[in-house]
Amino acid sequence: MTRTEAAAPTTALPVGLSHALNRGIIDYASLATLLEMNMKALELENLTKTFRKESRNGRGERKLRRLFVPSKTLSRAVDSVSLTVERGEVFGVLGPNGSGKSTLVRIIATLLLPDEGTARVFGHDVVKEPDTVRRVISRVSADAAFFRRLSAMENLVHTARLYGVPVKEAQRRIKELLGRLDMREDKLDVPMYELSRGMQQKVAITRAFLTSPSLLLLDEPTTGLDPKSKREVQRFIREVRQNGGATVLLTTHDMEEAEILCDRIAILNDGKVAALGTPEELKAEFGGRGGPRTLEAAFLSLAGKTIEEAEEEKEE
User: Which domain holds residue 92?
Assistant: First the structure.
């Protein structure tokens, strides 16, 4: 199956296109091209996910309370989120830790089932067509998993084989991608557990691009990196944006990172979309009055607190 065939939606055709196809005005190849050109990379409608959250009482108190009241409460990690991402766009989801960013990514990546709403990737429902969705996405998280005693090259070649990429082609692409991320070739044969956090994240990003994804899910990819590695990863994402190689969904709590990398940003707070627009639109509408208009000021205006304060509340 080609990538075009894999990306064709299974939903009903618009009436006009259906008539044109039936009358022979357009053929199936032209229809597939038209649909692909007009298809959204990502569509979320009223997406909701609720978890049971254990109360934080002391152990003895928790045992006593369990006799009389439930020990868990319901917490909405994602609350009626609706948004669309255009093809070739770098779309940011900005919010504090605990705001629902990672839960949102895990639903899109078919790792979690939503309780309500729908999510479609290039027209494919993540619940009804998970295998098709997985063929066109890749995900990079802040805690990427590897075979830690294998080298970076061994880990990457293993992934390439799983996806049917020939070994020689994989090795060529691995060296090219890691070169763009400024990772030295002599580090390719070093076991993963001996590599720095920044180098491991570069290997994770390379692994994601080995399969030429149409939608790349970057879940806080620079969290915990040293300044140099962070700049190198950010530069690579900018190159992807400029070359139009893939659509990118980027989650972050870094205001500067969101502003320099993203075409549009959704500000997420307590699982809800508080605002959505370009960085300039968000700063103009919600930024500070009488001072510099910044994304930090916009978040403060929308949430009534800074990102740091919101994160502290989640930790309490």
Answer: 41-136+213-316
